[in-house]
Amino acid sequence: MPHDPVARLPEPPYYAVIFSSVRHEGDEGYAAMASRMVALAAQQPGYLGVESVRGDDRFGITVSYWQDEASIQAWREQAEHVIARELGKQKWYEVMATRVCKVERAYGFARQADGVLAPLR
Questions:
Q1: Which residues of 37-64 are buried (b: 16+ CB within 10 A; e: fewer)?
Q2: Closest by alpha carbon to 40, among 8, 81, 87?
Q3: Could you tell me which of 11, 38, 46, 51 has the fewest CB atoms within 10 Å of its CB?
Q4: Domain membership flag for residue 9
């Protein structure tokens, strides 16, 4: 499911879940599951957006943004997400770490077609 590379988010405060990982070689269903998780997360109450990258060295970072800690906990307990996390442990990741942060300040810009800088929202 395509999405903006930089998430458009509300004014803080909100929460970020930072998931860093190093993938094993090969796909083994990973791409399909990753796509499904992005689409499923977007349907969850409290979901605000996602940003994700993976390098040729198999290292990746996905940051998902959430309204509050209760939304994060509900996502963590979502049945398909539980299965995906378990598959990650069993066959997709050599290393993985999850960090949860409260975002208190955020700023940025987007260059418009006319070259004018507009606040990123």
A1: bbebbeebebbbbbbeeeeeeeebebbb
A2: 81
A3: 11
A4: no
Task: Give the whole-angstrom CA distance, residue 72 versus residue 94.
Answer: 24
How many domains in the chain? 1
Confirm if 58 and 23 have CB atoms less than 8 A apart: yes
pLDDT by 10-residue block (mean), the chain, 121 residues: 76 98 94 96 98 95 98 98 97 97 95 92 75
Residue 4 lies in a domain: no
Looking up residue 85, the CATH number of its domain turns out to be 3.30.70.100
Of 38, 40, 43, 47, give the one whose Cα is nearest residue 10: 47
Say what the pTM is.
0.91
Contact between residue 9 and residue 48 where contact means Cβ atoms under 8 Å apart: yes
